Each structure stands twice: as C-alpha cells, then as structure tokens.
C-alpha cells in the first residue's frame, strides 16, 4: 500500500521546479533581496487576482491582520468581533494591538461565524469584525457587511485559508474593507517560507500600511509612525508569482453527507 502524505511540499516543488529554479537564479543574480521589482510585480498580480486595487506584501498572515487593525487606529479600549472557532492568529492580531477579541459562535453547518448571533457581541466599544473564511469556505458576507454598516464597523477578512474562493461570484479579499492573506508553505498559494499580504481597495489604508510595515517610514531614515518590520522579500514574491499562475477557480464543489443535505457549497481551487 502506497503512503500518500496529506501535505507533500516536496512533490509540489518538483512539479514546478524548472520555473521556480529559474526565478531563484534570477533573483539571486540581481543582488536585490528586499523591496524589489519582484515584490511590486506580485503585488500587482495578486491585487488583480483578488479583484481589488491594492496588495501590500508583508511578512506573514498574522502581520497582515495586525497591520490592518493598527492602520485603522484600533487599540487599547476597543473591541473586535472574531470567530470563536478559528486559528489563534486571528485572536493574536487583535490582542497585539491592545484591543479585546470578542468571540462569536460558529454556525454548526459551516463552522464559520453564525451571523444570527452577531447581535449578542456588539458593544459601544466594538470597532471591527474579522470573519474567517475557514477551510476555504467563505463566511456569509452579506449579513456580516449589513451588520457592520448598521453599527459603523470595519470588516476585515481573514482569508488565510481561502485564496481564490468565491462568494456569490466575488473573490475573497474583495468582500470587506480589507483582507489578510497568509502564504505559509502549506496554503493553496504557498511560499517557501513565511509570507503574507494585505489586499484592499482603500487608498488611504494602502498608504498607511505601506508605511507601518516598513518601520513607519516612507523615506529612509525618516519615520512618521511607530511601525514594524514586516516585508515580503523578493525571492518569495518571485516564487508566488510563478505559483499564482496555477491557482484558478474551476468549479463549485458540493460536499456530501450532512453538508450536501443542507445545500452548503464550496469553491474548489486548483489547476
């Protein structure tokens, strides 16, 4: 009996090794490894892919969420609604700003936020909601956005598990005010190290995050804000550009069993 790995990163590399090795040599020969042309190229490609105006490459998916929250001025004394059922990075991004994560319970059918329970989480201190598109399945964004509009909240998608997934024909990343993506190697769009991105169509937010992720600097040795060091490097950006060509949304998948009976649909991503 042949043993099949649940995640086989080595096999995935071998499938694209000629292209990946070529861009590796190109980047290494360039002598530019941070904030170079490869990053700008990938940012444009991924923004177009997500159907938004801007993509900002950062160091990880956690950093992407953290930078969005900081750029919106969310911090001590504020509250952010998060799923009770999610990877810890969603909560850590909120607590790292000094804000309080407030859990919303999941829908038993989808394991995403139960939108009917959002009313139980709102307080005068609530500033944002972070829906997570868990296991590649988009959260039910229409009622989330309506709830956010009624209460003047920012909607920040945690799309770390949902590159290319669709919600009513629209890509994840384009469904709220901004979104954070992870390119951890095991993701369906994975780098060969830690990497992430913020996507948004908000011009002001784009400019703030570009400053915050680079020590708070727009110009070398001039610092406007207390920023962090979270930059997508040239080599990972080049790898991601190659792999992005093979990430296409092909069809709707309907899960069987209980999911099928309840009519839950997922989007398949793959080549």
| SSE topology string | HHHEHEHEEHEEEEEHEEHEHE
The low-confidence parts are 250-271
Question: What spatial form do the alpha-carbon principal axes imply?
Answer: globular
Query: Strand order, biggest sheet?
Result: 1-9-8-5-4-2-3
Multimer state: single chain
Tally the beta strands.
13
Give Rg in angstroms: 19 Å
SSE class: alpha/beta
> Helix fraction?
25-40%
What share of residues are in beta strands? 15-25%
Q: Largest sheet, described in full?
A: 7 strands, mixed
Number of helices: 9
The pLDDT mean sits at: 90
Q: How far is the N terminus from the C terminus? A: 27 Å
List the defining traits of the structure above:
alpha/beta; 9 helices; 271 residues; two-stranded antiparallel ribbon; 13 strands
Structure description:
- This protein is α/β, with parallel strands linked by helices.
- Helices cover 34% and strands 20% of the residues.
- The radius of gyration is 19 Å and the shape is globular.
- Mean pLDDT is 90; it is low at 250-271.
List the helices and strands and how they pair.
Blueprint: H1 9-15, H2 17-30, H3 37-50, E1 54-58, H4 61-71, E2 79-83, H5 88-96, E3 100-104, E4 126-129, H6 141-151, E5 154-158, E6 166-167, E7 170-171, E8 178-182, E9 196-200, H7 203-212, E10 217-219, E11 222-223, H8 234-244, E12 249-254, H9 257-261, E13 265-269
Helix pairs in contact: 2-8, 3-8, 4-5, 4-7
What's a concise summary of this model?
This protein is α/β, with parallel strands linked by helices and 271 residues long. The protein has helices at 9-15, 17-30, 37-50, 61-71, 88-96, 141-151, 203-212, 234-244, 257-261, and strands at residues 54-58, 79-83, 100-104, 126-129, 154-158, 166-167, 170-171, 178-182, 196-200, 217-219, 222-223, 249-254, 265-269.
């Amino acid at each position: 009996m042949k043993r099949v790995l649940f995640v086989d990163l080595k096999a995935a590399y071998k499938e694209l090794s000629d292209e990946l090795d070529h861009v590796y040599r190109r980047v290494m020969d360039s002598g530019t490894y941070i904030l170079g042309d490869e990053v700008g190229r990938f940012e444009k490609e991924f923004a177009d892919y997500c159907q938004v105006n801007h993509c900002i490459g950062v160091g990880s998916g956690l950093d992407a969420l953290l930078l969005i929250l900081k750029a919106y001025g969310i911090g001590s004394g504020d509250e952010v609604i998060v799923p009770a059922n999610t990877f810890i990075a969603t909560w850590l991004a909120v607590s790292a700003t000094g804000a309080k994560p407030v859990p919303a319970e999941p829908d038993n059918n989808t394991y995403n936020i139960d939108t009917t329970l959002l009313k139980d989480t709102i307080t005068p201190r609530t500033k944002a909601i972070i829906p997570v598109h868990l296991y590649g399945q988009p959260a039910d964004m229409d009622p989330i956005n309506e709830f956010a509009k009624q209460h003047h909240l920012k909607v920040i998608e945690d799309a770390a598990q949902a590159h290319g997934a669709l919600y009513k024909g629209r890509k994840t990343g384009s469904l709220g005010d901004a979104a954070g993506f992870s390119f951890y190697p095991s993701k369906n769009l994975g780098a060969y190290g830690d990497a992430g991105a913020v996507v948004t169509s908000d011009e002001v937010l784009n400019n703030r995050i570009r400053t915050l992720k680079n020590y708070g600097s727009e110009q070398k040795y001039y610092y406007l804000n207390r920023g962090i060091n979270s930059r997508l490097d040239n080599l990972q950006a080049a790898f991601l550009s190659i792999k992005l060509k093979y990430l296409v949304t092909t069809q709707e998948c309907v899960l069987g069993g209980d999911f099928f009976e309840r009519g839950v649909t997922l989007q398949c991503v793959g080549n």
